């Protein structure tokens, strides 16, 4: 039997990353056009591509969204450890113990932290949520930096004094940018948790088998 091709084995991640790059490119150039239009309207010089890529406008818009995605994934992973939703394909069984709850056993093909044991195993058992936590914190910092820079750029255009980082973090604008994204992410997660109770998508691991009763996980 022929071994599946590299693309077949990795097609999901390849397609998702390709779509991300396409949409990020679209965001970059439409954002550049939007920012330059506003700058021209205010009598300011337009930004070049090399200038826009490290501008507050682009950094804030990019990491504001990444931040909410990583927060959503981190909390979703943690919440699904102990919380349940009867009938949802996104929930563990209401009664049965599942394989993911079992203690890891070292074997020949186990990941090296499992074989190593000790602190490495303790960290590895929570490495997925830790990775998303780090990505969230990094995105949060970059979002803040971009938003802070963009705000002070606007202040300069309006001939108003710049604010410090400490002053800006208490501004409603920064938290409005965060909250509007955070709430939408949890709405999306809640939607798939709840809708997967009754609705199906044949062939998708995110759905229960089509003939599964509504009240079974």
Query: If you compute it from the alpha carbons, what radius of gyration comes out, rounded to the nearest whole angstrom?
Result: 23 Å
Helix content: 55-70%
Q: Give the CA-CA distance, first to last residue.
A: 35 Å
The main sheet comes to: none
Tally of DSSP β-strands? 0
Secondary structural class: mainly alpha
Strand content: under 5%
Weakly predicted, low-confidence segments: none
Mean pLDDT rating: 96
Principal-axis shape equals elongated
What are the secondary-structure elements, in order, as H or E? HHHHHHHH
> Please, how many helices?
8
Give an account of the 3D structure.
With 217 residues, the chain is mainly α. 65% of the residues lie in helices and 0% in strands. It has helices spanning 6-41, 49-52, 56-82, 112-116, 118-124, 127-157, 165-168, 172-198. Helix 3 packs antiparallel against helix 6. The longest helix has 36 residues, at 6-41. It is elongated and about 65 Å long.
